[in-house]
Amino acid sequence: MSAVLDAAQAALAAEHAAVYGYGVVGGLVGRSRQAEARQAYDAHRARRDVLGRTVRDLGGVPVTSAAGYALPFPVADAAAALRLAAYLEERVAGAYGDVVRSAIGDIRRDAAGAMREAAVRAVRWRGGSVAFPGLAERS
Description:
It is a single chain. It is built from four helices and no strands. It is mostly helical. Helix 1 packs antiparallel against helix 2 (31-57), helix 1 (2-28) runs antiparallel to helix 3 (78-102) and helix 3 packs antiparallel against helix 4 (105-126). The radius of gyration is 14 Å and the shape is globular.
């Protein structure tokens, strides 16, 4: 159960970072994509809340969000905001992939759904897909 709890905590941390990151994305993305950014923000908030309950159900204390997060690259315009949104989704999909690998039952099913949703959002932000989103090998 420790592997599942660790993976759920990592996914929760990724969701916290995504919520923060979408605050940046929403402020810089063009008007035509602001509704999409808001929907992603709301989706990550909802997933974050579900993961918090999952961590508690697994006997853990949910990891808290940081006051701020370092962005992976400078984000000063709409194009960079789009790249950030795709990056956030890829990172979240990867974290859920780890939950899928370690869990069974409802937790695994929910993580697979979250991974799929993040992968679809990444494709929309990036404008193209990758072979197996969320399943990249980790070193």
